[in-house]
Amino acid sequence: MRVLFFIRIFELAGGGGENYGFRVFNELARRGHDVHVLGADRASPVEGITVYQGRDHIEQVLRDAKPDVTVDWGFIQPADIHRLGNGAHESFLKYSSNAYPPLIRWYKKLRARSPKHRAIIAKQRWMLTRPGAVFLANSAFTARQAVEAGADEKAVRVLHNGVDTELFSPGIGHGPREAMRRTWSLLAGDIAVLFVAHNLLLKNFALVAGLFRRLASKNPHLKLVVIGKRRPRRMPPGSVYVGEQADMASCYRAVDCLVHPTFYDSCANVVLEAMSSGLPVLASDVCGAHELIEDGHSGFVLPVAGEKGDILSRWLERLKEIGEDRRIGERMGAAARKAMLENDFAGYVTKLESFMKQVVARKNEQL
Fold it and tell me: What is the pLDDT of residues 270-301, one digit of tens each?
């Protein structure tokens, strides 16, 4: 199958969506497909893939590549298939505004009506309502946003992101785990709770900090480990900031739990990676990946919008539950690992192949 992908950045230096696309396209090429990629903003040569750069040459690229199917990876170019990896812009603005205090939230909603945002929303609505186009959402949460923005519900399918279950695994032995914990000044009896974020505001570090300020005196064995580009200005007592980490698989093995109280994600890969690594996860109900958590069995799904005191107490209760009985966390972690074994990366690519073949067959029938 000859496939042409449209993506903003085609290299491993992009964001989560671009990096995921890079891995998917390479896997399809490895499986023998004739893969062509147009990087609208930036692209690097990759062996086994025909790479183009710049959105100004799209028509020429279409003539040269002669694809059986075209796949848009992010509202870049009209295509046979649109992979909805970041949700709808209008929904993002709505949910992300919850990260701000009421007055600033009002200002953000006002700015959302600016010509820039209106243009983005209009472009997406145009693509979502194109006759014949089909949409592949990475969560039911994202699929609902597409339908609300104008897509035909029958044209939208859900395919959650897959995770590399070999790389992100519980691991064998305690040596490397304990060595990393020592570098983070964690004691043997500590229960390490991981928080991963570059955007501290959107990922809701304020809630995490509030939780651990409450836990500092009565549950001092619960320790917060923060990974990300920026060190929070006000770290709660007993917490440790370890900066960016290249080897996230080892980081997951060194901790006991993940908290991800984001105000918005379409399908948070960090949640899937942590679950695959055998960790219980406390995730917000607007992160997309929460749909793969069985609440109370493989983790907890909790709200982040509402009265602050109520939200804090609900997260605090669940975090204490894991912190006060290691067996609960271990049982949930095992269930999370089992769930991800049914949601692995290779399976994702196989399902994507099948979906693309269906679209090609439908196109051929219409000729």
Answer: 999 999 999 999 999 999 999 999 999 999 99
**Residue 110 CB neighbour total at 10 angstroms:** 9
What single string gives the DSSP state of each residue in 174-199?
Answer: SHHHHHHHHHTT--TT-EEEEEE-SS
Contact 161, 272 (CB under 8 A): yes
This prediction's pTM: 0.94
Within the chain, which residues score under 50 in pLDDT?
none
Please give the pLDDT value at position 174. Answer: 63
Residue recorded with tokens 């942590």: 274
Integer Cα distance of 50 and 230 in angstroms = 36
The pLDDT, as a whole number, for residue 212 is: 96
Compute CA distances 358 → 172, 250, 363, whole Å.
41, 39, 9
- The strands making up 81-84's β-sheet, listed across from edge to edge, are 50-53, 34-43, 2-10, 69-72, 81-84, 134-137, 156-158
Q: With CA atoms as reference, report the closest residue to 80 among 160, 161, 1.
A: 1
Residue pair 342/159 in contact by the 8 Å Cβ criterion: no
Nearest 5°: the CA angle 273, 31, 274 is 5
Distance CA(104)–CA(329), nearest Å, equals 38
Contacts for 11 with CB less than 8 Å, ≥ 6 apart? 18, 22, 39, 42, 43, 44
User: What DSSP letter does each residue of 139-178 carry, written as one string?
Assistant: SHHHHHHHHHTT--GGGEEE-PPPB-TTTSS--S-SHHHH
Length of the chain: 367
User: Counting beta carbons within 10 angstroms of the beta carbon of residue 30, is it exposed (0 to 12), middle (13 to 18) or buried (19 or more)?
Assistant: exposed
Name all domains of the chain by residue range, CATH numbers in brackets: 2-162+345-366 (3.40.50.2000), 175-341 (3.40.50.2000)
The pLDDT value recorded for residue 11 is 87
